[in-house]
Automatic annotation (TrEMBL):
InterPro entries: Aldolase_TIM, RibuloseP-bd_barrel, Trp_synthase_alpha_AS, Trp_synthase_suA. Pathway: Amino-acid biosynthesis; L-tryptophan biosynthesis; L-tryptophan from chorismate: step 5/5. GO terms for molecular function: tryptophan synthase activity. This is tryptophan synthase. Keywords: Amino-acid biosynthesis, Aromatic amino acid biosynthesis, Lyase, Tryptophan biosynthesis. Signal peptide: none annotated. Tetramer of two alpha and two beta chains. Its EC number is 4.2.1.20. One of its GO terms (cellular component) is cytosol. It catalyses: (1S,2R)-1-C-(indol-3-yl)glycerol 3-phosphate + L-serine = D-glyceraldehyde 3-phosphate + L-tryptophan + H2O.
């Protein structure tokens, strides 16, 4: 069973909803994002969604748009988001990590390569 599946099964048995937190990769920095994701899990988050910055996030609200732009200004990219997941996975091997990103980033990266690389770094799901 997947990490997400195990988490949802546990939550069902506990008769509670999931606490899912969203953090933008690279805002305020890549290193701090790793620390924030770890802290979120340590504080009780069931799933952490990592937003991968995109230069034209028109489907997102102003808070996420601004965080994406700050991260992009610092040079954050898809590979940085994958490195964040990889580092978090070393300390939280059973905690689900999901990426939220635009299809354009996946297409630019290459669909097969993106799926392979994101799975290898421990990403459990995608919100496109």
């Amino acid at each position: 069973m997947t990490r997400i599946g195990k988490t949802l099964k546990r939550l069902k048995n506990e008769k509670r909803s999931a606490l899912v937190l969203f953090l933008t990769a690279g805002d305020p920095s890549v290193k701090q994002t790793v620390d924030l994701v770890r802290a979120a899990f340590d504080a009780g988050a069931d799933i952490v969604e990592i937003g991968v910055p995109f230069s034209d996030p028109v489907a997102d609200g102003p808070v996420i748009q601004e965080s994406y732009l700050r991260a992009i200004d610092k040079g954050t990219n898809v590979k940085d988001a994958m490195e964040i997941a990889r580092k978090v996975r070393t300390t939280h091997p059973d905690s689900p990590i999901v990426f939220m990103l635009t299809c354009n980033l996946v297409l630019t990266y290459g669909v097969k390569k993106f799926m392979k690389d994101s799975a290898e770094c421990g990403v459990d799901g995608l919100i496109l």
